[in-house]
Amino acid sequence: MNLYLCASFYKLLIFHIYISMNYRSLTTSEIKALQEQGCAAKDWADIQVADPFIVSQVSNVRFTGKVYLGTNVTLDNIRNLGTSGDTTFANGIEVSVLKEDGGLEVVLYDGLTSMEAAFEVIEARKEPELVAKLHEKARKYAAGIRSDGSIIEAGCFVSDVREIKDVHLGPNTKVVGAVRLVDVSVVSLPDAPSFIGDGCILEHVIILSDSKVEDAVQMDNSFVGQGCHIGRLYSSANSLFFANCFFENGEACAYFAGPYSVSHHKATLMIGCMTSFFNAGSVSNQSNHSYKTGPNKYGQLQRGCKLGSSSYVYWPMQVGVFSTVIGHHTGHEDFRDLPFSLITEDGNGKTIVVPGQNLGSVGTRRDANKWPRRDKRSNIEGARRDRINFTLFNPYSIGYIMRGMKILRKLKNTGETDFQGGVINPRHIRRGLDRYQQAIDMYVGQQLQVLENLGILGQEPGEAGTGDWADYGGMLVPRKELLEALREGKSFEDLHPLLPEFEYNWLAAHFDITEKESLIEGGKSAAETWNAALDADGEMDIVACNIDL
Fold it and tell me: What is the mean pLDDT of residues 427-449?
């Protein structure tokens, strides 16, 4: 079982037992020393400490409720540290993502993964009973960890904070200069601590290990996954940020930021949408409100998408994997079946689609290669929580490419250029077909080689995994098999070891793989041609940047 998930379910139960056995009240001499060091308390009996308690490391703290202090804790200059008397540290709260006025809620808890959260949103209408079970699991967990005091575990360093109330700070958490932390969990690991910095205001927030939240960030009803950076005045409400997200300067509301979502710029708004492996250009934003029935519009930018600078999207709209959106779009288009596309506009506000354009961009290859290297999560065995598939070509993306080819062939045969409110130039239809076929050739050849190396290729293909695959927060799984597993009481983790076999079955079901050697060689040839074209694209970009000053 995943070490992190196991710890999340049992750590606070064990901790409460540990409190009763190993925490004690302050001695008279310790209270006197704390008073001499500028500390005060409504009731000194509310302060429970673990041995060894180093009294010299606690100064200028006003205790206003029950607090449990672990070993080697440093507290300095805290105006208000206490509890409301009954807290679950943000566990069990509902976050209304995407649909701001409710209906697609995710229930937060310490063990939440990107996969579970994405499932709760994507399957809310199709599988309400399974989603309800996940919600109930989170609520039961929250009820089981309800506490009468704030918890500051071993090795924490907290300094220059105005207010801390109803918090659980995991081992070695560092909080310096924050304004207010109310109803907050920081789920650090001893060797993977998290940091909260100057000017931050956090209310009803859970933060996981290896993450930094600093520089006057304001967050409410939010979740921050592992290896994230949130800084420079960023603000969020009712939003989720999963592994390795990086956000500065802008604003998020009802936003599901899957792994590797990024926004650096001021005046960039992310609202009512779901992304992953995503980059937001400066001043890009979306609208989820038609000023009629409330802020209930939402959409999805599938994995690998980009929003160009000053781009605008009016939800609902769906954008396919590894596509780029430039300009303003208000037509509520659905371009999921045209992946790797450039979506732009003409001078009259008409949406123009260039299918497969991003398969000819060196940036797509660069993105696929850079993400595994930029994983900021500590490489502690079993501790990385979100199961992330980094591959560019897989049953999920190739499935969309296959659907895209059917659409383009139909348009080519009929001579039509309109699709879902967008316009596709006939020349772009022909080029899109060529690029999609090249991607399929590369995928089939490369995946056959991978499966051969795993020793799977020689076995008889089965039926499991041959249907549509889905992207649940970065993890790619066959939807049918996942639903069956969840109904049987299993989890995403249980399916993870089976994915190579499922992918083999999918490959065999959709392609003739009897000529294995020929297909592998064909994949290599297609990859060489593709890489040569991308190298040339990169060279042109570099030349364009060489400007004499």
Answer: 97
Q: What is the largest distance, in Å, between two alpha-carbon atoms of the chain?
A: 89
Which residue, among 441, 497, 502, has the nearest Cα to 466 in the 3D structure? 502
- Kindly tell me the burial class for residue 178, based on how many C-beta atoms sit within 10 Å of its own C-beta (0-12, 13-18, 19 or more): buried
| Reported pTM | 0.94
- Asked whether the beta carbons of 343 and 359 are under 8 A apart, the reply is no
Q: Are 451 and 500 within 8 A, CB to CB?
A: yes
Band (pLDDT 50/70/90 cuts) for residue 547 is low
pLDDT at 455 over 50: yes
Q: 354: phi > 0 → left, psi -120 to 50 → alpha, else beta; which?
A: beta
| C-beta separation of 39 from 56 below 8 A | no
Sign of CA dihedral 136, 142, 143, 144: positive
Q: What letter does residue 136 receive in the DSSP assignment?
A: H
Q: Taking a C-beta distance cutoff of 8 angstroms, is the pair 306, 326 a contact?
A: no
- CA-CA distance, 54 to 347, in Å (whole number)? 69
The band of 20, judged by pLDDT with boundaries at 50, 70 and 90, is low
> Sign of the C-alpha dihedral, residues 496, 497, 501, 504?
positive
Contacts of 171 (CB under 8 A, 6+ apart): 70, 153, 154, 155, 156, 188, 189, 190, 193
Residues 6+ apart with CB under 8 A from 296: 99, 100, 101, 103, 288
**What is the rounded CA–CA span in Å between residue 290 and residue 262?**
27
At 225, is the pLDDT very low, low, confident or very high (cuts 50, 70, 90)?
Answer: very high
Tokens of 475: 């993890």
Q: What is the DSSP letter of 27?
A: P
Residues 6+ apart with CB under 8 A from 539: none
Assess whether pLDDT exceeds 90 at residue 295: no
Residue with tokens 């566990």: 91
CA distances from 332 to 271, 390, 512 (A): 15, 29, 37
Is residue 343 within 8 A of residue 356, CB to CB? The reply is: no
* Phi/psi of residue 399, nearest 5 degrees: -60, -45
Please name the helix (run of DSSP H) or strand (run of DSSP E) that holds residue 475, with its range, or none.
strand 475-478
Q: Which two tokens stand for residue 541?
A: 């970009």
DSSP 487-508: HTT--HHHHGGGHHHHHHHHHH
Expressed in angstroms, the distance from the first to the final Cα of the chain is: 58
